[in-house]
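Is this the right way to post structure tokens for a design question? Let me know if I should format differently. Anyway, here goes:
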């Protein structure tokens, strides 16, 4: 029976030490790279404070300039503030009226900070 060389033992020892570190790095990379946004097909937008206008509060301004009046902005695990950059996915709500009237009334399906 041939005894393993010191070099082979050293390599085997190094491999067992590096394996958990390698797995941690790979899993961290996958988590960060897959987490661009938790909202699929969302649009980039900014939350703006329109409190100075009658009946307005926080609204969402899309990058194309369209302003949305959300009915459920506070339903998410996010505290919206003026100037906050977000990813938003929404759908228009029919049969509702607004005093603010700066844009369509929408229900937010997904909201995440960007």
């Amino acid at each position: 029976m041939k005894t393993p060389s010191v070099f082979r033992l050293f390599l085997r020892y190094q491999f067992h030490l590096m394996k958990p570190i390698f797995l941690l790095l790979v899993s961290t990379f996958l988590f960060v790279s897959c987490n661009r946004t938790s909202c699929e097909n969302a649009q980039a937008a900014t939350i703006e404070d329109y409190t100075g206008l009658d009946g307005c509060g926080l609204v969402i301004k899309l990058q194309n300039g369209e302003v949305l009046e959300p009915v459920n902005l506070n339903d998410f695990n996010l505290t919206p503030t003026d100037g906050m950059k977000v990813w938003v996915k929404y759908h228009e709500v029919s049969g509702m009226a607004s005093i603010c009237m700066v844009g369509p009334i929408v229900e937010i399906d997904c909201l995440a900070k960007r």
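Format looks fine. Someone answered above. Worth noting: The chain has two domains: 1-35, 43-113. The mean pLDDT is 84.
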